[in-house]
Amino acid sequence: MILARHAEAMYWSGRQLERAEHTTRMLDVVSRDAMHFAASTQREWQLLLEVAGLAGAYEELDRPHGFDDVVAFLVVDPLNPGSVFQSVAQLRENVRTVRDRVPVELWEETNRLFLALELLAGELPSEPFELYSMIRRRCHAISGVIAEAMPRDEGFTFLVIGRMIERATLCCRTIRHLVVGGDHALDEGSVLRTVSSLQAFRRRPRTNGAEQALARFLLQGDDVPRTVLSCIRRADGRLQRLRQTAPGLGPALMVCGRIRARLEFGDIETELRTDPITLLLQLEQELSNFGAAIADFAFDPAQLPSMQAQFVRPGLDL
What we know:
With 318 residues, this protein is mainly alpha-helical. Helices cover 69% and strands 0% of the residues. The chain contains 15 helices and no strands. Helix 2 (41-52) runs parallel beside helix 4. It is globular, with a radius of gyration of 20 Å. The relative contact order is 0.13.
């Protein structure tokens, strides 16, 4: 049994944790690249905003278009709801509301990360790489507590689903900036480091058409935890454990199954060769539909008033 508001807090905790970690990793990778190519800093900050999905939001604020300004916006800006600081702040608040359902170590690690970022008072340090390293270590510590200390109950299920949807969405967006070409493209090494898959890809047999092979690997790789297919399989596995006591999950299962079937049985190789941008945009939209289907079932008391108190019957070992 889980309250709808607790399920929602768990779901968004997973998404916010993944967003904070991914944004920090992307900043670390792109910032190191920018150090070696000073003339291309404008290209680098544009890529940062586009991959983060915040280019439009930054333009609306009419901020300076310098690399350091964009990095500060993405890391410590309290006015940016997608910044690392705000993601961690929202993660902390969500974990606080479900403290009776999560291990005390999860709250402690989350609170410790928030307090460390709060000390920055909205100012980026002159040497931010130590900060990036600290954030990533703390996120890994939180992930370790989730993996090793959380009971496999309904709350864990929603946390994992939220995290997998966010991870898959960010992976698709990153791949899109590999195949788009021109000044808006990331190189292969940057993409792999951003999604923590550099060594895994290098261990695979060499193939012709490295860019297409890399995109296919990040979409369909079945032995790497950050590929889109791996994320969908994990989310689907958790939903399947929930479906026996939550028949209203049908629409979410259908959307998840559609994404999984396309990745497992569709002609992804041909789609990547002919029109990769359309493929990736369609996958991002399907992932958005997946999240919406979860929200409609579990989080929206206006549509499902009887679910506000309890939407899953007790008795199933998840």
